[in-house]
Amino acid sequence: TTHFTLSMSVVIASIAVFCLFRYGWIRLLTFSIFLVYSIQLLYFLNNPLMGHQLQAIRIHNFGTVYLFVIAAIYSLMALVRKSESLADTGIVGSVLLNGMGFSMLLALYVASFYKTDYMLLMGSVSAYCLLYSVLLQLKSDWKITAAFYALFGFVTMSVMVHGFYDFPRAYFFLALQSFLVVSMAVWFRSKFIVVMNTLLFLTIVLLYLKTSELIDGVNISFSLVALLTARLLNWKRDRLTIKTNLLRNVYLIIAFFMVLLTLHHLIPERYITLSWTVAAVVYFVLSLVLKNVKYRYMALGTMIAAAFYFFIIDLDRVELVFRIIALMFLAFISIGLSIYYSKKIKKKQSNEPESAQQ
């Protein structure tokens, strides 16, 4: 009875997808998704409509295999060609509905049968979704569905990472994964993925700072990923057709604070002011090389932070010789920046009359 019920749900899903490709029956497909996942849920709850006690089944009887097959069958809907009879909302809504039904039942199975060994399940889902998203990007007329599958693949990858590495070590790999997501979004030309990843990255950073002990490797990974992501978004902004600097600014702000925090936690106490000043110099050099004014703002902000730290913290507890070195270095860099900007302003002012005369 069990395998007959689950097999029938596979047959229903197959017929619905076939009718979609052959006749464009999107409403039948949507109804079948509700029906099939309801059958799956009733099976998981021990078929209470058949008079059985309402409870989770004790043996899954390869229920996850049937669940995966059903989700894979329904995923084929994203390959149907666009036509007048198929509205965007119909296909996209059905893809989301399939994802919600699959996610709900997968969560129930994991909570009941795979509490400690769910990594293989999540890894399989992640691999399928990411590979299928590439296929959709190349072949599908519904490009947004590729973004959905890619995001779901990365979410399940995050769950898999958590299974292998407990927090806070998992944050290191989540940071690297974030850069992978943005790289894939650039290839997909998907602003949707970039926006969602930005929100997730910001959330992960805040959770790490709020709930976990600081680890140098994780701090460095967040700092570098934020800087590299901001640079990648600026480099490929035309490909993503991003007209606002908001997303890049979010990553630069995260990088600014994470670099300060990373150096504060990594460098010996007496060298913190010095290290922040060096970071300001690096930002300034980047602004010249990349011709990007935002790195100058970061350099200025880092110099201000170094100055405050020196006068509030270092003067009280750092040895005299290190105070002198830090102060001289800070003063030297400040004077150098002042001279540079003074010359730049004079050059700009001298060019304005010439351009006006022309």
- Total tally of structural domains: 3
Using only CA atoms, what is the Rg?
28 Å
Q: Report how far the terminal alpha carbons are from each other.
A: 90 Å
The percentage helix is over 70%
Instruction: Enumerate how many helices there are, as a single number.
Output: 14
- H/E series, N to C? HHHHHHHHHHHHHH
- Secondary-structure-derived class: mainly alpha
Tell me, rounded to a whole number, the average pLDDT.
84
Shape: elongated
How much beta, percentage-wise?
A: under 5%
Write down how many β-strands occur, each being a DSSP E stretch of 2 or more residues: 0
Report the sheet with the most strands, covering strand number, pairing sense and barrel closure. Answer: none
Topology diagram in text:
Layout: H1 2-23, H2 26-44, H3 63-75, H4 88-113, H5 119-139, H6 143-164, H7 170-188, H8 191-211, H9 216-235, H10 237-240, H11 246-266, H12 272-290, H13 293-317, H14 320-357
Helix pairs in contact: 1-2, 1-3, 2-3, 2-4, 3-4, 4-6, 5-6, 6-7, 7-8, 7-9, 8-11, 9-11, 11-12, 11-13, 12-13, 12-14, 13-14
